[in-house]
């Protein structure tokens, strides 16, 4: 019974840290408003010449080092991003090249803030179907490039960064005690396009900025995240009681608390990094996994649930034993 088991994890954050107070100089906002509404205290912004594939490559190298592997040990790279360097080629093939990898295959996945969960699920499918033995799953974003820095309702919420997980095919027993990915649940519903989107793109010959109806997103988020996490757990006969760590998409502390509350999991069992990273979209879950492991909190054998929602709407959850 094949399982996609975590062999390594790593992350990278751009050097420049932007504190909430920096926004007070350019827009009508306050550190207190941003903290109390979102839980965010600071975020990292990439340097002007630093791209998504740069951040992703740093995170990938850190995950490879953690696993004690070389780039040519990898069969596939899946990069979740909505902010690729160019329209094409994929940012994943740029990472492949920067790593000096000339074998295997690489592609991007675009499911906005849910991108990492979608990428993990795809990596799991590649491994279970025997198409790849080792897959590097990366989430990387430069959301600072698609923000309207005059829109106080959105520009204070997002940040840049990257995280990576290295998955390897290993034999398990088929029980929920196995290490590796145990269950996934993916969803999308395009009727909700207008509550979270970028109002421009290649096929409309425009460049755009992020637009969001914050209250609407919030309302959908808590309900849909708790449901998808429960659905994934139920597939293997488990519940919130069995969970060691929820590692949620880091959008907003109020969404994170609301979801944990619905799942009846206390906040002591939730990894929270939103205060330091802001919302890094597809990068937020692998960043939180990497930080959680580095802090000595996430340990081998523990049951981890990741859940995320974003533009689309697209949402989902992955249950894995670390
Ligand atoms: N500073 C000060 N005031 C602000 C700011 C700001 N940065 N932004 C908005 N306001 C004002 C609004 O203009 C409004 O003023 P008004 O009443 O005079 O019109 C007031 O604050 C209240 O605004 P609301 O939108 O009602 O504030 P709310 O309590 O809903 O909080 C927030 C806004 C934080 C965006 C919240 O709705 C939220 O967290 N939504 C979820 C959105 C999210 O996390 N999206 C991430 C992308 S999707 C994802 O990753 C899950």
UniProtKB/TrEMBL annotation:
* Principal subcellular localisation of the protein: cytoplasm
Q: Which reaction does it catalyse?
A: malonyl-[ACP] + acetyl-CoA + H(+) = 3-oxobutanoyl-[ACP] + CO2 + CoA
User: Its biological function?
Assistant: Catalyzes the condensation reaction of fatty acid synthesis by the addition to an acyl acceptor of two carbons from malonyl-ACP. Catalyzes the first condensation reaction which initiates fatty acid synthesis and may therefore play a role in governing the total rate of fatty acid production. Possesses both acetoacetyl-ACP synthase and acetyl transacylase activities. Its substrate specificity determines the biosynthesis of branched-chain and/or straight-chain of fatty acids.
Keyword check for Cytoplasm: yes
From the UniProt entry, list the residue stretches annotated as the region ACP-binding: 250-254
Descriptive protein name: Beta-ketoacyl-[acyl-carrier-protein] synthase III
Its UniProt domain note says: The last Arg residue of the ACP-binding site is essential for the weak association between ACP/AcpP and FabH.
One of the record's GO cellular component terms: cytoplasm
UniProt subcellular location = Cytoplasm
What residue stretches are annotated with the Beta-ketoacyl-[acyl-carrier-protein] synthase III N-terminal domain?
107-190
Known EC number: 2.3.1.180
Q: Cite the PANTHER family for this sequence.
A: 3-OXOACYL-[ACYL-CARRIER-PROTEIN] SYNTHASE 3 (PTHR34069), BETA-KETOACYL-[ACYL-CARRIER-PROTEIN] SYNTHASE III (PTHR34069:SF2)
Q: Which family does it belong to?
A: Belongs to the thiolase-like superfamily. FabH family.
Q: Under the GO molecular function aspect, what terms does this record hold?
A: 3-oxoacyl-[acyl-carrier-protein] synthase activity; beta-ketoacyl-acyl-carrier-protein synthase III activity
Biological process, per Gene Ontology: fatty acid biosynthetic process; secondary metabolite biosynthetic process
Name the InterPro entries for this protein: ACP_syn_III_C, ACP_syn_III_N, FabH, Thiolase-like
Subunit comment: Homodimer.
Q: Which gene encodes it?
A: fabH
Pathway involvement? Lipid metabolism; fatty acid biosynthesis
Beta-ketoacyl-[acyl-carrier-protein] synthase III C-terminal domain: which residues? Answer: 233-322
Q: What is the top-level taxon of the source organism?
A: Bacteria
Keyword Transcription on entry: no
Q: Which UniProt keywords apply?
A: Acyltransferase, Cytoplasm, Fatty acid biosynthesis, Fatty acid metabolism, Lipid biosynthesis, Lipid metabolism, Multifunctional enzyme, Transferase
Q: Where is the active site?
A: 113, 249, 279
The record, for Pfam families, names: ACP_syn_III, ACP_syn_III_C
């Amino acid at each position: 019974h094949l399982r996609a088991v975590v062999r390594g994890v790593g992350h990278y954050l751009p050097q420049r840290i932007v504190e909430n107070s920096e926004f007070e100089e350019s827009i009508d906002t306050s550190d207190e408003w941003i903290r109390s509404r979102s839980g965010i205290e600071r975020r990292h912004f990439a340097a002007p010449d630093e791209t998504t594939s740069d951040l992703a490559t740093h995170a990938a190298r850190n995950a490879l080092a953690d696993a004690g592997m070389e780039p040519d040990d990898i069969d596939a790279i899946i990069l979740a991003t909505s902010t690729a360097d160019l329209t094409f080629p994929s940012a994943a093939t740029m990472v492949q090249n920067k790593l000096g990898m000339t074998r295997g295959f690489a592609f991007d996945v675009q499911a906005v803030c849910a991108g990492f969960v979608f990428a993990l699920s795809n990596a799991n499918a590649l491994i279970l179907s025997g198409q790849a033995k080792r897959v590097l799953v990366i989430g990387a974003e430069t959301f600072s490039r698609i923000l309207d820095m005059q829109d106080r309702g959105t520009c204070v919420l997002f940040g840049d960064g990257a995280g990576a997980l290295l998955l390897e095919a290993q034999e398990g027993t088929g029980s929920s005690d196995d290490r590796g990915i145990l269950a996934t649940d993916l969803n999308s519903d395009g009727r909700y396009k207008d509550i979270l989107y970028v109002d421009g793109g290649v096929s409309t010959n425009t460049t755009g900025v992020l637009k969001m109806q914050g209250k609407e997103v919030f309302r959908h988020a808590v309900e849909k995240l708790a449901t998808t996490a429960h659905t994934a757990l139920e597939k293997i006969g488990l519940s919130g009681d069995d969970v060691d760590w929820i590692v949620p998409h880091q959008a907003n502390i109020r969404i994170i608390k609301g979801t944990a509350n619905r799942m009846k999991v206390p906040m002591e069992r939730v990894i929270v990094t939103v205060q330091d990273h802001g919302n890094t979209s597809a990068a937020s879950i692998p960043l939180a996994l990497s930080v959680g492991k580095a802090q000595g909190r996430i340990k081998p054998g523990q049951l981890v649930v990741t859940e995320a929602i974003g533009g689309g709407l697209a949402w989902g959850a992955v249950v894995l034993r670390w």
